[in-house]
Amino acid sequence: MTKRYKAPRGTTDVLPEDQPYWDRVWEASARICGLFGYRRIETPVFEDASLFSRGVGEVTDIVQKEMYVFEDRGGQQLALRPEGTAPVCRAYLEHGMHNLPQPVRLWYWCPIFRYDRPQAGRYRQHTQLGCEAIGEADASVDAEVIELLFRLYEDLGLQGLTLHLNSIGDGECRPRYLEALRGYYADKLEQVCNDCKERYQRNPLRLLDCKQERCQPVIAAAPPFTDHLCDACADHFSRLRAYLEEVEIEYVVNPRLVRGLDYYTRAVFEFQPQAEGAQSTVGAGGRYDGLIEQLGGRPTPGTGFATGIERIILNLKRQEVAVDAPVRPRVFVAFQTAEARSQAFRLASGLRREGIAAVVAAGERSLKAQMRHADSLGADYAAIIGKRELEHGTATLRRLSDGHQETLPLADVATIMTH
Length: 419
What we know:
It is a single chain. By secondary structure, the chain is α+β, with helices and mostly antiparallel strands. The chain has two domains: 16-173 and 229-318, BirA Bifunctional Protein, domain 2; 331-417, Rossmann fold (3-Layer(aba) Sandwich). Helix content is 36%, strand content 21%. The protein is built from 15 helices and 16 strands. It has helices at 19-35, 49-55, 61-66, 85-94, 139-156, 174-185, 194-202, 216-220, 231-246, 291-294, 309-318, 341-353, 367-377, 387-392, 410-417, and strands at 39-40, 46-48, 69-71, 77-80, 104-113, 125-134, 161-167, 252-253, 265-273, 283-287, 302-308, 331-335, 358-360, 381-385, 394-399, 405-409. An eight-stranded mixed sheet has the order 1-5-6-11-10-9-7-8, sandwiched between helices. A five-stranded mixed sheet has the order 13-12-14-15-16, sandwiched between helices. The protein has a three-stranded antiparallel sheet with strand order 2-4-3. The radius of gyration is 28 Å and the shape is elongated.
């Protein structure tokens, strides 16, 4: 028996009927990123695997469990891109962007690959829109990337999203907080999952990022990071909140919010649907002031976000947000005789050159079957060429909504369509 192939687990086909959602999100993303002064960048689908283990962190779930790693024919260890920030920072360094006016504002739209448990709106191959602002530490830039993402969701018509904010400190105040966090968890390790027992030893900040139900009561009572910030981090967080209030963007301070990548510092944020919470986060990001240095550059601040396109579209559908209908042909060109086939093909070609969407019949179908095809495509008109029309250089133009028709010279078909 011949094998029937299916898309690999954790992947999905984007069918034509869903393309209007993708087109809507792409158009809004490109336009709003441009309004904020961000320029588009594209990086390779695969990179040196060590770029991610060095930048994202050796003990993160992405590096330990989720990366697609392979060895190429030259023996180099490569990885399909599991996140977008490290490649952009690599490009920033490789192409000398530190010589440009800072911050350098960049945006990208790209596939992301993670071997993770598939869930609603998140696949092993999914698509992200990301923005990075590299080269400036001021809190106004953090507020800018948050506002950009907020305006995108607003433009798309998404409602019910809550902005969660937190600060996870920096190299000065984080060690003190981690000591307090370990102390809090020390007598609670029997209450948490096995992953958290490992995180306690290797990456304690990730304890707050666990999604296991049994760990939630322990997380809820953990000491908040905001009580342990140094003066500089506290001031940065205060100014960020003030900027957001200036542009009337509402938020909640979530002291349990951390990010799953090691490079984050200071302000982190997520946009969450109210009904579903953190496991259905639509977009998230934060500051990563140490990442460029980890990748071999001089100390360079940066901040940014990523938002999942599939998650956005899932929420657009759930909220029944209207998008443009798929493009339909204006004209379906039909023929009644084999001799008229070439004339029908030329007519359709000429209509397209005039900017009129046209589909020409194919095969050996009867005129009745061709008309059913025209209806199924949602065409407005059928241009029919038979023996008589072929002899006189005309076409019978039938309006499919009510059946009204008239015979006119071939050259006039396009004129009627454009008036």
